[in-house]
Design goal:
single chain; Alpha-Beta Plaits; 6 strands; 95 residues; two-stranded antiparallel ribbon; alpha+beta; four-stranded antiparallel β-sheet
Length: 95
Amino acid sequence: MKNIYSVIKSPVITEKSTIKAALGQVIFWVDLEANKQDIKTAVEKIFNVKVLDVNTQRVPGKVKRMGKYAGQKSTRKKAYITLREGDKIEIFQGV
């Protein structure tokens, strides 16, 4: 990836992600084309933390219907990022 700011799309704010944030793991929506090394580099440079591990998951788009018409939501990619003990990302504090 060329730009580190285009790798990370947004944080995932759910009950599961807030529980994982307390355990030192944060979850982001990332670009479909980004690999684990791109994600690790982007998080370390943007948030100034040390990343220990990156796990990714592709979330397929669901088929949605509106009357007789059917469409499909976009496929997205999640990244589960494990941080070094003591490092925190401020987005997830107090959520």
